[in-house]
Amino acid sequence: MYFCEYHTPVVGTLTVTSDGEGITGCWFDNDRHFGHGLTDKTLERHEDLPVLRQAESWLDRYFAGEKPNSRDLPLAARGTEFQLLVREALLDIPYGETMAYGAIAKRLEAKTGRHQSPRAVGSAVGHNPLCVMVPCHRVVAANGSLTGFAGGIARKVALLEHENALKPEFKVPRKGTALEGVPNAALVGRGQQYRFEDLTPDQMRLVQEARDSSFAGVFFVGVTSTGVYCRPDCRAKVPMQKNCRYFPTAEDAESAGFRSCKLCHPERLKGSGS
Q1: What is the pLDDT of residue 273?
Q2: If DSSP codes are grouped into helix, strand and coil, which group holds residue 76?
Q3: Distance, CA of 49 to CA of 53 (rounded, Å)
Q4: Which terminus of the chain has fewer CB atoms gathered within 10 Å of its CB, N or C?
Q5: Where are the beta strands (DSSP E) in the chain?
Q6: 88 closest CA partner among 52, 112, 64
Q7: pLDDT at residue 175, rounded to an integer
């Protein structure tokens, strides 16, 4: 499975995945269901894959304020029969408009002849593996509550504002799982797919806080308050961010005047970072 990262000022970084022919996923970097539906979660970076370039071009147009048609994309994410029905219903919601979960349930009832639960619709919408491309952000509760968003309410609000679809009567919930996503969701366990130059200081900070061992050797952390440098998965207390400097190799950290940490012994990984 291949992936690329798409950076947007509206909702941060998106990770787009492909099996080489179709688009199998598009997730926020803090998506609670990151990777949901992928049969192979071993991802290889491939920025030049034609289908991923097509996805980036579509996203360029969308975030430039155009209204590209999602059905022009080779969407190939897996799902149950019901999830695919809900996905088709989401694709029918026009740019700049919204629809309630109950209204989608009624549409599915008319299409299938079977009773459909708004709650089940909400679950399928929440597990949408193609955020932005399949516009789950356009679904709201019957009372106008902006609930049920895997990337967090702030991103849902940002997308609705981008489409001029945010209405005064919409309500932002004050509690519940929809308020925040999961920090580091896009990075966790995938350290060997990244180079030092691929990561921002904020991303490296998230890796530190998660003590993600998959990033061992990808970067090192110099701590100005102690004078030592550590692996990102060091067992010591995570230092304050203002005291952290990041380096691609242990040698670079030593050249900057830091000595190796006795807890994580990063000198064993010299030369493994790049």
Answers
A1: 42
A2: coil
A3: 6
A4: C
A5: 2-8, 12-18, 23-28, 44-45, 99-100, 139-140, 220-223, 228-230, 244-247, 259-260
A6: 112
A7: 66
Ramachandran class of 181: left when φ > 0, alpha when ψ lies in -120 to 50, beta otherwise? beta
Q: What is the pLDDT along the chain (274 residues), one digit of tens a residue?
A: 899 999 998 999 999 999 999 999 999 988 888 887 787 767 888 889 999 999 999 999 999 999 999 999 999 998 899 999 999 999 999 999 999 999 999 999 999 999 999 989 988 998 899 999 999 999 998 888 887 688 888 899 999 999 999 999 898 877 665 667 666 677 777 787 788 988 888 889 888 888 888 888 999 999 999 999 999 999 888 999 999 999 999 999 999 999 999 888 655 444 444 3
Distance of alpha carbon 171 from its chain centroid, rounded? 24
Q: Rounded CA gap, 187 and 40, in Å?
A: 16
Catalytic residue set: 136
> Distance between CA atoms of 102 and 267, rounded to whole angstroms?
58
Query: Residue 128: left if φ>0, alpha if ψ -120 to 50, beta else—which one?
Result: beta
Residues of the chain within CATH 3.40.10.10 domain(s) are 193-269
pLDDT, position 121: 93
CATH number of 2-162: 1.10.10.10
Chain region(s) in the chain for CATH 1.10.10.10:
2-162
Structure tokens at 26: 């598009």
Answer whether 154's CB lies under 8 Å from 119's CB.
Answer: no
Q: Which residues contact 117 (CB under 8 A, 6 or more apart)?
A: 105
Distance (Å, rounded) from C-alpha 209 to C-alpha 221? 12
Cβ-contact 243, 225 below 8 angstroms: yes
User: What is the CATH code of the structural domain delimited by 193-269?
Assistant: 3.40.10.10
